[in-house]
């Protein structure tokens, strides 16, 4: 397995960065998780747009142009002979001193890890996941603005810990006002009377690439889709609930906080959207 590290491909156990990297010391950096389907990088431009926007927002200079970054992504999957899998692209502030000052970290670290993906079993897509809501709140605006896909994932990790304690794979995070925001690493959708709803990003949701693809598919196939704040009550009484994310794709939810959702398995609209999504991924990508 070859890891891209600052312009070179190195073997996995030689891919090391400094303990003074502010990504390590302070979570100062950004990342993307990207899927490769059939040798194509899915939504490459969208992921890189989000990466470069996140970088600009936190004043982090990525030492590669957009085009060069696209080329090294392609090179990474070629070098690793990956047809289907996952790319983790990390840009950290780089090594500095023990102070916070980013001016002391003049050189960002750019890391690309390409791997096989452990996804949910197909059974989960048919029967849906059990999930719970958790007490960890999504921080909104400022530094933890969910629009910035930063290395500050402590909130999400706390959600994951609560999910683990509840014995579920994904959990629902609210924002500080009690509106449903998203999962630990997935966006959330609900369906009620044929209308598809997802929280607007200002509620505290990442502008997910899969989320955008699903909104687009809804518009194409004719499901009304609304970005509107909603509460746990709306989730409990929804006809269908599903999560979306690069790794999870479109995964149904069959139970939330011990309330059975709809028929207790993947609903018809969720199933249709997953099918449409899987047909899009095969054709839409950078080779
Ligand atoms: N929310 C969070 C907090 C995430 O980390 C992610 C990405 N794994 C998502 C939502 C889903 O976004 P995407 O569809 O771009 O993977």
TrEMBL record:
Which SUPFAM superfamilies does the record associate with it? D-aminoacid aminotransferase-like PLP-dependent enzymes
The entry describes its oligomerization and partners as: Homodimer.
The record's listing under CDD domains reads: D-AAT_like (cd01558)
In which family does this protein belong, per the annotation? Belongs to the class-IV pyridoxal-phosphate-dependent aminotransferase family.
Q: Name one Pfam family in it.
A: Aminotran_4
Q: Does the keyword Amino-acid biosynthesis apply?
A: yes
Cofactors demanded by this protein = pyridoxal 5'-phosphate
Q: Name one GO biological process term.
A: amino acid biosynthetic process
Q: What lineage does UniProt assign to this protein's organism?
A: Bacteria, Bacillati, Bacillota, Bacilli, Bacillales
Q: Is Nuclease among this UniProt entry's keywords?
A: no
Molecular function (GO) terms listed?
Answer: branched-chain-amino-acid transaminase activity
Briefly, what is this protein's role?
Acts on leucine, isoleucine and valine.
Which key words tag this protein in UniProt? Amino-acid biosynthesis, Aminotransferase, Branched-chain amino acid biosynthesis, Pyridoxal phosphate, Transferase
Q: Report which gene this protein is encoded by.
A: ilvE
Gene3D superfamilies assigned to the protein according to its UniProt record, in alphabetical order: 3.30.470.10, D-amino Acid Aminotransferase, subunit A, domain 2
Name of the molecule in the record: Branched-chain-amino-acid aminotransferase
GO cellular component, alphabetical, reads: cytosol
């Amino acid at each position: 397995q070859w890891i891209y590290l600052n312009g070179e491909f190195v073997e996995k156990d030689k891919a090391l960065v400094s303990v003074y990297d502010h990504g390590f010391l302070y979570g100062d950096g950004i990342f993307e998780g990207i899927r490769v389907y059939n040798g194509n990088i899915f939504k490459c431009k969208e992921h890189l747009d989000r990466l470069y926007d996140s970088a600009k927002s936190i004043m982090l200079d990525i030492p590669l142009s957009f085009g060069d970054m696209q080329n090294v992504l392609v090179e990474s999957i070629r070098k690793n002979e990956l047809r289907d899998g996952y790319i983790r692209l990390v840009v950290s502030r780089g090594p500095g001193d023990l102070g916070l000052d980013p001016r002391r970290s003049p050189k960002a670290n750019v890391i690309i890890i390409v791997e096989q993906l452990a996804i949910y079993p197909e059974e989960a897509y048919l029967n849906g996941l059990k999930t719970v809501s958790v007490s960890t709140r999504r921080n909104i605006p400022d530094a933890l603005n969910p629009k910035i896909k930063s290395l500050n994932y402590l909130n999400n990790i706390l959600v994951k810990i609560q999910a683990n304690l509840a014995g579920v794979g994904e959990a629902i995070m609210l924002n500080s006002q009690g509106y449903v925001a998203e999962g630990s690493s997935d966006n959330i959708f609900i369906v009620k009377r044929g209308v598809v709803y997802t929280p607007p990003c200002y509620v505290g949701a990442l502008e997910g690439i899969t989320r955008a693809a699903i909104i687009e598919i809804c518009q194409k196939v004719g499901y009304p889709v609304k970005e509107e704040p909603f509460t746990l009550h709306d989730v409990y009484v929804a006809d269908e609930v599903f999560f979306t994310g690069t790794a999870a794709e479109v995964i149904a939810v069959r139970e939330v906080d011990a309330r059975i959702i709809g028929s207790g398995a993947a609903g018809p609209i969720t199933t249709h959207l997953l099918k449409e999504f899987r047909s899009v991924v095969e054709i839409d990508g950078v080779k």
